[in-house]
Structures are given as C-alpha cells and as structure tokens.
Amino acid sequence: MIKKYIVGAAVVTIAVLAAAWAAAPVLAAQALIRAAKAGDARRIEQLVDFPALRQSLKDELNAELAAQMRRDPRMAESGLGGLGMILAPMLLSGAVDAAVTPEVVARMVTTAEAPDPTVRDDPEPGDTADEGDDIHQAWGYRDLNTFAVTLTDRDHPDQRLALILERRGMFAWKLAAVDIQSGAAA
Question: Which of 16, 104, 138, 177 would bridge 150 by S-S if both were Cys, CB 3.0 to 4.6 A apart?
Fold first, then answer.
C-alpha cells in the first residue's frame, strides 16, 4: 500500500517537473513581451543575453546587407562594391554594439521589426502604446534548448522576426538571438 503511494507521488512529481520544464520558455517569452510593452528596461536586461543577441543581430544584418548588395546591379558593376562588402560588416558591428539596448529590444518586440543600427531615431514616450496590437505571434520549440517566438506585423506579412530564446539552466531562458525572415530575400 505504501509502495503505491510512493510510486504515485514519484509519478506526480515527475509530471509536474516535466510540465514546468516544458512551460518555462513560454513563461519567459510572455515575461519578455510584457516587459517590452511596459517599457521595463530593468526586466528586459534580466531576460536578454545582450552579448549573444548583439552577435546574432550582427550576423543577421550582415547577411541581409550582403544579399542586398549582391542584388543591386550598381554594386556588382562598381569597383567599389567589393570594398563596401569588406567595410560594411565592421561599420555595422560598431553600430549594433551601440544601438542594441533594452529600449531597442522593447521596440523590436512590440513592432516585429529588427532595429536599423544606422538610424538613431528615439521614439517619443507615447509612440509605442498601440504598436503590439497588429503583431501576430507564433510560438514553438526549435529543439529542446531553443524556443522561438515568431512575430509578424499584419501590415507586412512577408516580413517576420523570430525571437530565439535559449535555455540557461534547468528552467531559465533568455533571449539570445534573432532570426530575420524577409519574403523579399527568400
């Protein structure tokens, strides 16, 4: 009789831990979205791995820039096109390092748009109040340690921004990367 209770308690404990383990990224993503909508920079700092996010954003923006340069016939014909492809990543790297802040992450989450490090227009405090209303969210695991929240602005359905959360320990998750998916680039 006692053996049945012990086995039952073990099964319940394992089920609760498995449910908490599976739900942890959803809760972390919801916390990030709430913090972004509230403009809570301190909470965003806790939920984001900024060095990993900056590197991911550099990689994504460099790939997009290189694709745009290859598609532009003026760049292909110009002798300076190659020089531009060499210098652009260095310039972009410094701009991303300076531009990616908790406020920029909040704007990225609420608008479903990757930041443009070449533009330094700080939004007015009331500008982000209704931005999240037209954003569709798709949630899902990419693998056991990677969870993605794909954001799509209903006005621009061909452009998606995936926020990639990575596991940090058993139940902790942090935003560590972005995946910029553009219909024009595909």
Answer: 138
Query: What tens digit of pLDDT does each residue of 78-123 get?
Result: 766 667 777 778 888 888 988 899 999 999 999 999 877 666 555 5
CB-CB contact of 178 with 108 (8 Å): yes
Q: What is the pLDDT of residues 145-163, one digit of tens each?
A: 999 999 999 888 888 999 9
Contact yes or no for 26/139 (Cβ under 8 A): yes
Residue 178 burial class via C-beta count within 10 angstroms: exposed 0-12, middle 13-18, buried 19 and up: buried
Other C-beta atoms lying within 10 Å of the C-beta of residue 75: 15
Q: Give me Rg for the CA atoms of the chain.
A: 20
pTM of the model: 0.81
SS (H, E, C) the chain: CHHHHHHHHHHHHHHHHHHHHHHHHHHHHHHHHHHHHHCCHHHHHHHECHHHHHHHHHHHHHHHHHHHHHHCHHHHHCCCHHHHHHHHHHHHHHHHHHHCCHHHHHHHHHHCCCCCCCCCCCCCCCCCCCHHHHEEEEEEEEECCEEEEEEEECCCCCEEEEEEEEECCCCCEEEEEEEEEECCCC
